[in-house]
Amino acid sequence: MKIRWYGHSCFLLTSENGDSVLTDPFAPEVGARLHDIECGAVTVSHGHFDHCYTAAAAGEPVVIDGAGEYDVGGIHVIGFPAFHDKEQGRKRGKVMMYLFEIDGIRLLHAGDVGDQLTKEQLSEIGVVDVLLVPIGGKYTLDYMEAREFANSLKPSVVIPMHYKTPNSTIDVDDCSNFVSTVQDCKIHKLNDSEVFIYQYTLGEDRVLVLDPYKETESEDQVRFEL
Q1: What is the three-state SS of the chain?
Q2: Lowest mean pLDDT among 18-22, 90-94, 134-138, 161-165
Q3: What ranges do the domains of the chain cover?
Q4: Is CATH 3.60.15.10 the right assignment for the domain spanning 2-215?
Q5: pLDDT at 224 over 70
Q6: pLDDT (tens digit, 9 = 90+) per residue, 165-212?
């Protein structure tokens, strides 16, 4: 599976067969203009402008914005509802989390989740190999809450998202505090926007820190396999 991060909560997930899903594309106001991204489907965690800019995708991909099960080529997607805040959604409403089954790997995109998961939710989600989790606080989990969230799911790999990057206009914290709290894990700061992850290389207790994708990057450059 190839994971490309565009920044904020937007990733392009691509299987070995070339099937792909774009997650939570953001509007230009966030600080970068996403456009003409080839994908078979777009998942939307909720209707805020920094998570639902489906115009970023090329053509007319399937838009997934609710609970249930979906198939995008060889990718299986399951939507789980969660809360955007610690007040049962009374402050910011609900969000969707999506579990992707790609190349034998179970990846959970936690959306704009703002509260810890219940035992029932953890049971419904089941095994998670790779977790994409917000860490920036203010609108989502903060860095300490994100660590607690990850510990409850026990993924092999954690990739932080929804935090301040140089080109972002969203007022959230950067990733420095989160990285400082996970020193007992293997931390890989890749200085790259893409990583390839395979079943046999999952390992355990790893944090991968990506850089947002830039259009100037070459498709032929060497990518990380972890």
Answers
A1: CEEEEEECCEEEEECCCCCEEEECCCCHHHCCCCCCECCCEEECCCCCCCCCCHHHECCCCEEECCCEEEEECCEEEEEEEEECCCCCCCCCCEEEEEEEEECCEEEEECCCCCCCCCHHHHHHHCCCCEEEEECCCCCCCCHHHHHHHHHHHCCCEEEEECCCCCCCCCCCCCCHHHHHHCCCCEEEECCCCEEECCHHHCCCCEEEECCCCCCCCCCCCCCEEC
A2: 90-94
A3: 2-215
A4: yes
A5: no
A6: 988 999 999 999 999 888 777 888 888 999 999 998 887 789 999 999
Give residue 92's pLDDT: 72
Token duo for residue 226 = 């972890």
